[in-house]
TrEMBL record:
Family: Belongs to the metallo-dependent hydrolases superfamily. NagA family.
CDD domains to which the protein is assigned, alphabetical: NagA (cd00854)
Protein name from the UniProt record: N-acetylglucosamine-6-phosphate deacetylase
Domain Amidohydrolase-related: 63-388
Top-rank taxon: Bacteria
Gene this protein is translated from: nagA
Pfam families per record: Amidohydro_1
Sample GO molecular function, one term: N-acetylglucosamine-6-phosphate deacetylase activity
Amino acid sequence: MATPPGARGTAQKTTTHPQVLTGAKLVLPTGTVTDGRLTIDGTKIAAEAPQGTAEVVNLNGWLLPGFVDIHNHGGGGASFSGTADDIETAIRTHRAHGTTTLVASTVTDDMDILVRQAGLLSEFAEQGDLAGIHFEGPFISPCRKGAHSEALLRDPDPAEVRKLVDAARGWAKMVTLATELPGGLDSVRLLVELGVIAAVGHTDATYEQTAQAVDAGATVATHLFNAMPVLGHRSPGPIAALLEDERVTVELINDGTHLHPAALELAFRHAGADRVAFITDAMGAAGVGDGRYLVGPLEVEVSEGVARLVEGGSIAGSTLTLDRAFKRAVTIDRLPVADTVAALSANPARLLGLYDTVGSLEPGKDADLVLLDENFDLKGVMRKGTWVVDPQLG
């Protein structure tokens, strides 16, 4: 196995005795506390430190719960479809940008390759570096394939869906499906039975077909608005069905490329802040820069931070990190800080069934923290009581 992610490339400072973090604005489930105090004891947030034993660390800016990304294909020049070293690099890159809980997303490929990759990714989940695996493809519509190889797409046969889930050894968290395809609804029902999130995405479904999928148990809209029919006044399509149903969490890519600000506002207004999960949908260029990359078997050109297929020009994921998504949300989209924190931390944590351990700053939860300065730029990251990016060294 590769060196544990985070072991190199970012500052590391392990908390060996209790710390009391003071001076920053704490964003709590109950509201924002100015000049708050947060106690860290080992790997956990504590109610209070033993008297006389705690180190007081003075901070400033905003102290938030660590970010939770449920849809991410890679970063740092590497892909979750690559080697163990590639996976380590991608994890380390996003962790240094505040993502302390991360689900690795695959991209459409040959089934045997996906099965092997699921086994490799599950090793990182078993050692605590990933929260699980998201299979995006191959069970998606050729009409809305985006950056997926059309030659490798297939209908969502429940037997093949189960094969991928089984290969993940209990770490399959989500499967994106075009549920209108043959076998789609049966696959949704199977995923529900297996305790895996069924997500509607890369779909050409009608409004009615999408509503059927939600009734069958689908609970996530994969990057809402993208890779699906547009919202029409006579044919509202999947967007209306997914926005209106309270059972559905909608993913949004807030990078300024995938969504017009008005579409973002529409989603927040209609779904409500408790049903939005900001994601990166990042590919290898995240945290690196422009150049040529691979997304699965397809070649991608990244120019001025926008990733597009070399052949065809379709948008091919993003170069986003969640700290940038946070800053854009509060400074450009003018979303309340509390709503943005919910979309980046609490909502995805609840969706994954992890809210008892991550997603908010509460005693007993993992000491996963993000420190931003007054301009909402990243200043520090703590994961399980260890400073991955130490604000005292910055």
